[in-house]
Fold:
Amino acid sequence: MEADSQRSKSYRRELHDLVQRACTDGEMGSMPMRSLLLNEAQYCHHLSQNAFTIEHSLDTWIDNFRENLPHVTHNNKAGFNVPHTDRKALVIGAGPSALTYYGHLKDKGLFTVCTNKSLEFLIRNGIEPDIVVVLHSTPEIKGTINTKVVSDYLGQEGRLKSDFIIPTTIDPGVFWEIAHISRSTHHHWFNPSIPEEQVENINQFMERMTGLPVIDTGGDVGVFALLMALEMTTGPVGIIGLEHCLKLKKEWTNEQALGYRIEYAPESYEMLYAIPPSFQVTLDTMVKLCNSKGKGRVYNLSNFGPVYARKLLPYMAMEDFACQNKEPTNC
Amino acid sequence: MSEQRTNELLKKFDDWNRDVIKELLPGWCRNVAKNLEVATTSMDYKQGRAGVKHCVVVAAGPSLTDEDILSLKNYPGDIIVCNKVFKRFINLNVVPDWCLLLDSNAVSEEQFRFLKNRPWVPTKFLVSTTAFPATVEIINECSKGHPNQFYMFNPTVGLNGDMDVTTVWRWMNGCPELSHGGNVGTMAFMFARDRGYEVIGLLGYDLCEELNPEWTQEQAKDREYLYFPDINKVVAIPFYFLAYSQCLANTALIWHGNDPKGPRKAVNLSESPLMRHINVFLQKKVEEYVKWTSEI
Structure:
């Protein structure tokens, strides 16, 4: 087995330069190179993802920034005075495991941080999160915030008590949705940082114009929510829905499926999941971030995906995490 | 893809094989020495050309069924089988035209021992000079008195250096060299190509595995996985299968040149999800292929 593993490594090393050429050849003809191409694409992606995103999104960001500026400057009563606490935090992303039952977390005193898509999952269980983190600058997440579930929960005039972390580059339509369900005093605007080598002095300009901090978001709303939770609380942080993988779907085309890395974990109930290349980069970043915070700071509460199957972070069932509170409430 | 590019790829795979070769080379040399006398009197497969335009090459992948084999009973082209598949064919009363043996392991003796106790079969044997000597002896004995039935070759051994070991073996036994890409299935395809068939069907070529819940975490991590939503199936591919399939696909590609109007066709007949999705092969069912080639 060890010899096989060594050969595998040697094989990959040997093929590294071939794959680089294969990327430009375009006629590899057969699929077995797929995973190697993916690995290579992932490496290239890591280097160029930011540059690519920024190049293609900069106009949108600036347009959004201009449109949002009145709200940011005139109606901004909260500033970026986000809450700080020593409570345990629960960060909920929008991965497959996030769609679960949260009702038992009521009255457990957890500091809950969710993303735009997972807001509905909490509301459905009657939990108003402490923090809702939004990052997207494109309109694609429209409809994920003021959903029917949220709107029914709030009634005609109701507003959530949650604090919203909002980038100054947010799509105005998405902000309108947030404004409809929340209080402006709970809006915490910030400037998402843009690498200076891409656009010179842009962070400084945004900071000067808004009087708001510039924050490196990591480019992924889930990771940013985790980052915020780590900043806002000194207690342990549990994460769910941040597995950065997908469940296999029959609806995908073969071409789509071949674009994902499939992993198999026979030891975890024969678990199968797909990792798109961009998720792999974010996953690596997230795990590094969690490990850099020291042992016992971040727990994985999801029993699906690479973080669980490959034991990248310590696992704890959500109920156990909620009940092992420093100051137990209703456990 | 250019021929040069493909050759570069193949060379890289040969380089990768080097470690394995170095480990097995002493045993191969011992077998070549023990098979020397038989090899010097064997026939040269390169002297003959195929009398028909099409063939089916059959490897031993788990997807190969008895129904597949029986479908070939009245196949008018040549049937070329690899290693242990030969016994399955004979047991089902389907006589292959060629049987290829590359395996140098003692296990092959078990697979061919049945020949001792049964009537003569007209199958031609192409056997590696590195094959297990007791197996070579069995096959040679059953071919005695039947000219044009027993052929041997020296397998290409991709060692770097001024002198390659295959040349030395050729000096010793006079047998021709045959490339194999690391496995008998690819070698059988190369053999069929060299015989001059225009249409080559590939059956029992899986080059992937079913998921196995008994794998350890390490074993599972050492494989690549492909998901095919159209059949809702995930298959596992060990790293050496990646190399084999790449080599096979590139050999086929370079042979037919991806020219849809050209006469050369490589046709996958296997049910393997991987082979079903490699686009250098035409895809057909066995019965469909038999009917189609009968009309050629």
Observations:
- Chain B has a mean pLDDT of 88.
